[in-house]
Amino acid sequence: MAFNDDSFIREVNEELRSDQMKGVWRRFGRYIIVVAILIVVGTAGKVLYEYWDDNRSSGTGDQFLAAMKLADENKNDEALAALDKLEKEGHGAYPVLARMRAATVQVQKGDTAAAIAAFNEIGKDNAVPAAVRDAAKMRAGWLLIENGAYEQVSAAIEEMAVPGNAFRHSAREALGLAAYKAGNMAQARQWFQSIVDDTDSPRNVANRAHMMLDLITASGKAPAAQG
């Protein structure tokens, strides 16, 4: 089923207008996270592609593509074995790419704890290029929204929620959702408002931030600031 971000937001706003607040997050919260994480994956994928493109002369490229094909076919254990071999024996960019892909396969397998641990490990490895470390931290942060506490999400990604960082929009959204899920509406409002106030925020991210601000205001737990 294909989703349209704008029509989805209109549907949520219709629920708000009909005063059916109690079930809004229960009904839409997971979808909000899924839509947003697709953007993170896309951004991370661009970073990783550029890193791979700079190192594509390695002779292990075919092995990496074969491992990705196994993952795409949901042959997760075989894919993990192939990626583990690449991590240990590959050249150029491939060991790092294999680590990132292996963590994603762990998500596919349903072992979220292992995936978070793997992404966190990559994010702390100074031997890994900074852009890839940031991509790994973002993946861990988004997984922690549903599988951890706000403090864990903050520890993973708040350092990226600053002006000029390429991942700031996704980081702010993840922090806002984590605060909302934790019931900290004042903190959630601050993060979503920072998205709205940033004129460089992508339209779909800003639209979701506006929607979440409406939800927070409707909850009555963190009224809109008076300007």
UniProtKB/TrEMBL annotation:
Per the record, membrane topology reads: Single-pass type II membrane protein
Gene3D superfamilies in the cross-refs: Tetratricopeptide repeat domain
Main location per the UniProt record: membrane
Instruction: List, alphabetically, the GO terms of the cellular component aspect.
Output: plasma membrane
A single GO molecular function, which one? protein-containing complex binding
Can you give the residue ranges of the Ancillary SecYEG translocon subunit/Cell division coordinator CpoB TPR domain?
23-202
Q: Name one Pfam family in it.
A: TPR_21
Q: Where in the cell is it found?
A: Cell membrane
Sorted UniProt keywords: Cell membrane, Chaperone, Membrane, Transmembrane, Transmembrane helix
Question: Membrane spanning segments where?
Answer: 28-49
Annotated family: Belongs to the YfgM family.
Name used for this protein in its record: Ancillary SecYEG translocon subunit
